[in-house]
Amino acid sequence: MQFKVFPDDTLLSSAVADAICGQLRQNPRSLLCLAAGHSSLGVFQELVRRYRQNEVDFSQAGFLAMDEWLGMNRSTPGSCSDFLIQNFLSQVNFPPERVRLIDGKASDLQAECKAVRCSIAEAGGLDFILLGMGMNGHLALNEPGVDFTLSVHLTQLDGTTKKVGQKYFDSAPELTGGLTIGFADIAAAKNILLVVNGERKSQILQKVMESPVTNLLPATGLKDLPNAALWCDRAAASLCPAG
Ligand SMILES: N[C@@H]1[C@@H](O)[C@H](O)[C@@H](COP(=O)(O)O)O[C@@H]1O
């Protein structure tokens, strides 16, 4: 895994946007999987700006959501799908038939997981995944203790995720579970980028950097992957020796 520190989130987000634009230049039909969360906000803003300036085009690309809270879908304010639509998808030009969000309200949740697995397989895998890291070291909703061999699955939530997840909502919902792509899907992606920004992530980033690979800190699973990179800003890296 490559590790790189940027002076601030603006430069970090711009470098991530460069990487995504480069991916689309190389393969305009790429399947992108970009995290719904505050880590991605600067990247979304930069990609929207570039789209408006005709510097990037998503008209042939595909988009796959990474995760969704149980009992929520695109109609739920604050859900992962809603976050993606509001902050990114509604402002750029993905073909609607190539946008696959996850329905956490589906009547058959296992069938929904299977359908998302099929979408990934039909596209020949994810071309580019942009991950954020949770305050407990989770990736997507692969929580501490996760089985690294799993593909798309239904999961229970760690206490930290239940608490921290409230930040996306005005309504203080009870967060009980989620549907998420699995570590196996992440590891099989052609390009894997984890962004970590802000001082509030400095302690968990230090823990991840100092720990060997363990499913108790899911982000450490990227360490063995040659096509993975962890890019962070200086605030997040402030407790890391290399920061
Ligand atoms: N479901 C999301 C993840 O996909 C996200 O990447 C991560 C970090 O969130 P944030 O970027 O808001 O810190 O945790 C959330 O729970």
From TrEMBL:
Signal peptide: none annotated. InterPro entries: Glc/Gal-6P_isomerase (IPR006148), Glucosamine6P_isomerase (IPR004547), Glucosamine6P_isomerase_CS (IPR018321), NagB/RpiA_transferase-like (IPR037171). Residues 14-223 form the Glucosamine/galactosamine-6-phosphate isomerase domain. The keyword Translocase does not apply. Keywords: Carbohydrate metabolism, Hydrolase. PANTHER family: GLUCOSAMINE-6-PHOSPHATE ISOMERASE. This is Glucosamine-6-phosphate deaminase. The lineage of its organism: Bacteria, Bacillati, Bacillota, Clostridia, Eubacteriales.
